[in-house]
Structures
1.
Amino acid sequence: MPAIEPEPTRFRFPSASEWPEDDLVAIGADLEPGTILAAYRRGLFPMPLQDGTLGWWSPLDRAILPFSELRISRSLARSCRRFTVSVDADANGVIEGCADPSRPHGWITPAMRDAYVRLHRLGWVHSFEVWDDDELVGGLYGVAIGGLFCGESMFHRSRDASKVALVHLVSLLSERGGVMLDIQWLTPHLESLGGKVIGRDAYLERLPQALAVADPFEDLDLDEGWP
């Protein structure tokens, strides 16, 4: 089922030619679905500042994870066999796990959490859940627009659980016509899995092509073996 297009935003985001030489491009606006989608379509994403002000970001050192460069160690391959993975079975649980306030460097406020749950209900946010029997032990979620998947956050309660979710995400995107997996900033963790910096300019050059293709999650039949 296609995602539902929300009401257009009432805010105007600056064009890329007006952006400062800084990761933080703009502040303010709101977290309505139309606003968030308009931002992603321009290469921006929301994240609050330390004082709670809503910021819109496009890192100068923008990073992606090329599908063909995903690194799967032997231990990760064993973990992939150990756990069970589902898609969109418990998005609320995954987002709650990522938003756990006890996590170090947590940035997902209740307002951010609610905004992405709402986007999930409209069909724009997708989650990958990792299970150990009936226990949710990890996962990730992100925004899918056309062939672009913007990874927002991941969490784990068992070793390698978030990495297992990432392996399944990359597999789905690569097999169903995805174009680009945006990982925002490159962390040592993501670099170890194959992430790399391409820079803001290169990201913006690739963005229109990614947005133009069909959504890999549209008409996804989970009864046919996914994941």
Note: The chain is about 30% helix and 25% strand.
2.
Amino acid sequence: MNSIYAIVGMCGSGKSTACDILKENGWQYIRFGQITIDKLLEKGMEINPENEKKMRESLRDEQGMGVFALLCISKINNALERGNVVIDGLYSWSEYKILKEKYKDNIKIICIHTSPSTRYKRLSIRKQHSSDKEIRMRTLTENQAKNRDYSEIENIEKGGPIAMADIMIINEKSEDNLKTQILRIING
């Protein structure tokens, strides 16, 4: 059976970069956060940190803390038929429990940990590329990033999956260093 890796960590830790490395190595890609972007676009709302926060929290208020996992299970199952799967953006403890119950030992949680000061610096200089059609890479001020951190920890149970990660990667160095660590994991 093909494997699932869910990448967890705070905003700016390197989750998307880690997922890109796995995609480059043939892994199928599922992004939970795309649900938020799609819902904002459906409603004609501007994509910005405030609207994203409102939408994430609204979806969870209306449909439960595990809504993103539940909405993505069929996508995950379809992707598993084609190969190994990487999930970008598992956030809540409820999502973690749903996926662990469904996929048992076939899902591994990889936490990308980066200090707040490093993340805030990265986020303040990060630029969205024209090729970023999924709107994954956006610049955030330190204040926006800190507010997002607090909101995600306090309102959407983000700490649980990070604490329960099967594998921890410290990402304080270069992108090449992160790539080396990811490749070491997938190549055994």
Note: The longest strand covers residues 107-113.
3.
Amino acid sequence: MRDPPGAGVSAIIPVRDGARYLGEAIASALSQTRPPIEVIVVDDGSTDGSGDLARGFGPAVRAIAQAPAGVAAARNRGVAAARAAWIAFLDSDDLWVPSKLERQADVAARDPALDAIFGQFETFVSPDVDAAALPRLALPPGPQPGLLSGTMLVRRESFARVGPFDERLRAGEFVDWCARAREAGLRFHVSADVLLRRRVHDRNLTRRATGAMADYVLAAKAALDRRRARAEGGA
């Protein structure tokens, strides 16, 4: 029998040098109308006190430190440490709406065959963004469908069927995981509820990770190679 949503959720927050917004992200996880049974913050080699900030929440937050290895490795580390039957991810600069986990648990209860539940997201400009930059921002209007790590609630057993995030990828690791999840036959549901508020701020406006586009291409190529291998195997 599959674990019901009442079996609990492990909330995993990867962070590297994200102390500026981390406290708000943690608070949005702890203040859920149906709180997770644990909040795990994986500090991916921060030098700005992010780990100390997480530990400052006391026993409500489990802080794990690792040498810098990337967001995929940090999420994998959190999954390995998780104790709950369900897993949810939150980036250190984003916010869950208060009823996120409760709404998703209700969907899972109505359809126990589901492996993962997603929802919508809204983008907001962080109050500390320079006003001069605001006219240049092209934000999507209103709620958007979100096949994003921050909107997902996934069964731990289903995540294990797909396998961990590809730690070779500095970007596109979630796109790659979703492609593998579909290939593995996982059942997704995307609800109409807004579950996540994605923050736009100066760092994610100006950040251009070296090789990021190459990583997206690598993820797409890997999916194509898998399809070709299956087609050849069935020939």
Note: The domain at 5-163+190-208 is CATH 3.90.550.10 (Spore Coat Polysaccharide Biosynthesis Protein SpsA; Chain A).
